[in-house]
Specification:
The protein is of the alpha/beta class. Helix content is 37%, strand content 15%. It folds into three domains: 261 residues, FAD/NAD(P)-binding domain, CATH 3.50.50.60; 128 residues, 3-Layer(bba) Sandwich (FAD/NAD(P)-binding domain); 116 residues, no CATH class.
């Protein structure tokens, strides 16, 4: 009898798993035949986020040369490497192009078709354009996957969840604001994938409060300006008259850092150095567990500092006062942040060459402006300075820190639950918008279409309106009849709108204190509340405690998502192969 594998989610993660199944099947699968069922209401390849049916104005936030769906020899995995083209090679683009998401969707569809074609002839793929509602079945037996609009479930020998970004129910604060909006005829747009939000409710010329200054805000900015007929002439924005006025703030009060705009040259820092497999193994083995802030964050700081100073000393030695070998020895021996700061003060004369993660993370902490207009000028200066620095090869230690962030993320994946702080910090420093988007932000600010609110943005609802203010400009506030929460929903089990994850939780799947699904970091099997893995249920993605920077990544950077895909594919194929042998023995 043919075996059945159900993969819920056919976007980049599901496609990556399919590619790894094709790569590993010749070695690991000799069963009677396998049906792979891809369950996703959106087309395979791009899935929801990268579907081709979205605005052509929306870009990726990575250069085309930095996007690949294929493994290489830097990926630590048991399966075979199957190399393939990056996005820029496949699309014949200049490598430093920021491609549109529609084009990325076509690339992902091609990767899906190639993976499907490389499966053995005994393996057949079926796409079900429906939502998966729940999974049932005994722990040791075949599973049932119930689909929307289908009276009978799919029977599965194994299920892999690769559902990507999820919708979520509102948290208490958001629910209160939404209820107030309904009562007073206001507009409240909750966290969402921006391309799916109903922006028609935001009226021309009216102030709109926007909470969130990351990539979701950039999409919102684009759709409400160019998407409404505005255009750019050089550094000037020419409004169409259909735009609202966006008042944007966040916890930091500044946009994510620009993507770096130059190439790496010379030798790379030898990473990992202070947070590698040995440190991860030691942290994982601690009987009482570990505390992220106390035990992990100091290792992250030291690792990123090592990457930064290695590049400074080896590529720009004229800006240092000692030999790298001497600095490295003293840096490795330094046992606390004070010791490192003293060493750096001796060895690096210019403060602009020193790595200060706290200042990078919260540039407006303690900063106050007398007027709202003073803040506008200051924030434009902040963005200009960031753009200048991130496009200056003389500041190449910044790119070394980026490589350090990738290395750290690859190690943290193995630790499991590390809390939300790290992912937000990583995204702010390493996953920001293209430089041209920040230049557009400056043009919009000068045109008066975009206004900055400041750090620690506070939103209240009273007197029939929303109000926003910030400690950055004491006494200033702005009123609006519209509020947009410009960020993706938090991927937690308890608030997932998707019944699939809620039902999993009710069925005994474990969650972290931050609400993420617990999985075995080795192969992605879902864990129950006793810490036991479900033999026939796997999960990968941002809603798990083994989340990665993304389902695709830069070439030759070790791609932790690729490593996970390979481990899960091999575990699935090995399980199916062993099940077939057991059936024959009966």
């Amino acid at each position: 009898m043919r075996q059945q594998l159900v993969i819920v989610g056919a976007g980049p993660r599901g496609t990556g798993i399919l590619e790894r199944l094709a790569a590993n099947a010749p070695e690991l699968y000799a069963g009677p035949g396998l049906d792979i069922h891809l369950v996703d209401p959106h087309p395979p390849g791009g899935g929801r986020v990268w579907r081709q049916a979205q605005s052509p104005l929306l870009w990726m936030n990575s250069h085309a040369e930095d996007v690949t769906m294929f493994t290489d020899d830097t990926v630590t995995m048991a399966g075979p490497v199957r190399e393939g083209p990056t996005l820029h090679e496949w699309a014949a683009l200049h490598g430093r192009t920021f491609a549109g998401r529609q084009l990325q969707g076509r690339y992902l569809r091609w990767v899906y078709e190639r993976a499907r074609a490389e499966l053995p002839p005994t393996v057949t793929v079926h796409h079900h354009p429906r939502r998966a509602l729940r999974i049932g079945g005994p722990r040791e037996g075949r599973q049932q996957v119930w689909l929307e609009g289908r009276p009978r479930p799919l029977l599965a020998d194994l299920v892999i969840l690769a559902v990507g970004h999820l919708d979520a129910e509102l948290d208490a604060g958001q629910a209160e604001l939404a209820a107030y909006a309904r009562e007073h005829g206001l507009v409240h747009l909750p966290p969402d994938f921006t391309a799916d939000s109903d922006l028609s409710r935001l009226k021309a010329g009216e102030p709109v409060l926007v909470r969130g200054f990351g990539l979701a805000f950039v999409d919102l900015m684009v759709l409400l300006t160019e998407g409404r007929g505005g255009r750019y002439e050089g550094d000037e924005y020419l409004p169409s008259g259909r735009e609202p006025v966006l008042y944007v703030g966040s916890r930091r009060g500044v946009p994510y850092h620009s993507k770096i705009g130059y190439d790496w040259t010379g030798g790379r820092p030898p990473l990992p150095r202070f947070l590698g497999p040995a440190e991860v193994d030691e942290l994982s083995a601690r009987p009482g567990g570990f505390d992220f802030r106390r035990d992990v964050w100091p290792l992250i700081e030291k690792e990123l500092g090592f990457a930064h100073y290695h590049r400074l000393f080896t590529a720009h030695p004229g800006r240092t006062t000692m030999a790298w070998a001497d600095f490295e020895e003293r840096y490795a021996a330094a046992g606390d942040p004070e010791g490192i700061r003293a060493l750096v003060a001796d060895a690096v004369p210019d403060p602009a060459d020193r790595l200060d993660l706290a200042a990078l993370d919260r540039p407006l902490d303690g900063v106050r402006y007398g007027t709202h207009d003073e803040l506008q000028e200051a924030l434009r200066g902040h963005i200009e300075a960031d753009l200048t620095r991130r496009h200056d090869p003389a500041r190449s230690p910044d790119l070394a820190v980026f490589l350090g962030l990738l290395s750290v993320y690859g190690q943290l994946v193995r630790l499991g639950s590390i809390g939300p702080r790290w992912h937000g910090f990583f995204s702010y420093l390493a996953s920001g918008p293209p430089g041209p988007r920040l230049r557009q932000m400056l043009a919009l600010s000068r045109a008066g279409v975009l206004r900055f609110v400041g750090a620690g943005m506070e939103v209240t609802a009273a007197d029939g309106v929303f109000r926003a203010g910030s400690p950055t400009v004491p006494g200033f506030s702005v009123e609006s009849r519209a509020l947009v929460e410009a960020r993706l929903p938090e991927p937690t089990l308890g608030r997932a709108r998707d019944s699939l994850l809620r039902e999993l939780h009710l069925d005994g799947a474990a969650e972290t204190p931050d609400g993420l699904l617990r999985v075995d970091p080795g192969d992605g099997r879902i864990l129950d509340r006793a810490g036991r893995p479900y033999p026939r249920r796997f999960a990968l993605g941002p809603y798990t405690d083994a989340r990665t920077p993304g389902a695709f990544t830069r070439p030759r950077t070790g791609g932790p998502a690729f490593r996970q895909n390979d481990a899960t594919a091999r575990a699935a194929l090995s399980f199916l192969g062993a099940s077939h042998v057991k059936e024959l023995a009966r």
